[in-house]
Amino acid sequence: METASLLTSSAKIIINEASQSILELSVVENLDLFQKFGVLLFRDFGVDYQQMKDFAEKFSSRFVLDKDRPIVDARNKYVTLVDPGMHYVSPHCENANSPFRPDVIWFCCGVPASQGGETLLWDGVRVWNQLNTELQQLFIAKKIKFLQKFPAVDWKRFLGVGATLADVKRTLNGIPGLSYKINPDQSVVLEYVCSAVVKTKYGHQNAFANSLVAEYKNPRGVVTFADGSPIPSTVINQIQQVMNNLTEIISWQAGDLVMIDNSRFLHGRRSFTDTKRRIYSLLSYLK
Predict the structure, then answer these.
(1) What angle do CA 36, 106, 255 make, to 5 degrees?
(2) Nearest residue to 52 via CA among 21, 92, 19
(3) Are residues 72 and 174 in the same domain?
(4) pTM summary value
(5) Listing from the earlier edge strand, what are the strands of the sheet with 188-194?
(6) Same domain, residue pair 210 and 132
């Protein structure tokens, strides 16, 4: 096994030079690398989505299901295809617009797009350090608020098919920064207030690791400052400029597996037109 740097960041590529199965790799050694670097790309291990799940189980206490992504098969209900569509996806951390942010995002490449479709990465620690003092002070002083509406079919997918409104209340009650309303049609409206600046799970560093830009540009998303005042477009543009200079790229090869620290790294993707592209995903909490 050999390691190499991924572009300019501390992320590491782990290259299979001994014809090993990825399931033979040391959990302890790779967890140590993950805690240090935040992104691991396993290459030439020929990983499929079942092996991704088996490998992830060695590190994970539990898995969660994204409400928008299609499940691959009934036996692997937590393994999904990535976001539907072929459009550009703005930088975000998974579920950072809610209190249910997983620790790790796993991606596995079945078929790369013939052109485009690369996964993009931004190190939230580097982003924070590159923001000017005015922006840093703004986001230290002001929290942000995400507003989301979940039809019953969505929260039942997240909590389980047999979930009831009592389960919703039990899950949501008492979470700091969260308020909610249940509508007559059983849809649930969430308001979640949090800081745009988070402490990384490892190292406890400040990271601008959030879903602010993605939700701001999402026609269905609503994000404001905590008091309900709008976030100026000039602020978003300044953030985007900094991120444009820190964008890193995963050019997929079939069989690649990527492990991303969701408390530190934001991710997105380039647009593509190849309908054969297949990237699988998995969300988990670490043991």
Answers:
(1) 105
(2) 21
(3) no
(4) 0.94
(5) 178-182, 188-194, 144-150, 222-225
(6) yes
- Position 6 confidence tier, pLDDT thresholds 50, 70, 90: low
Residue 262 φ/ψ, nearest 5 degrees: -80, -5
> Do 263 and 101 touch, CB atoms closer than 8 A?
yes
Give a yes or no: residue 156 inside a domain. Answer: yes
- 118 assigned to some structural domain: no
In angstroms, rounded to a whole number, what is the distance separating the alpha carbons of residues 263 and 128?
Answer: 13
Spatial separation of the C-alpha atoms in residues 210 and 135, rounded to whole Å = 15
Please write the tens of the pLDDT for every residue from 185-218: 999 999 999 999 999 999 999 999 999 999 999 8
Identify the domain containing residue 200 by its residue range. 126-243
280, 110 Cβ separation under 8 angstroms: yes
Residue 6 sits in a domain whose CATH number is 3.60.130.10
Looking at the fold, whether 159 and 106 belong to one and the same domain comes out as no
Strand partners, 13: 4, 41
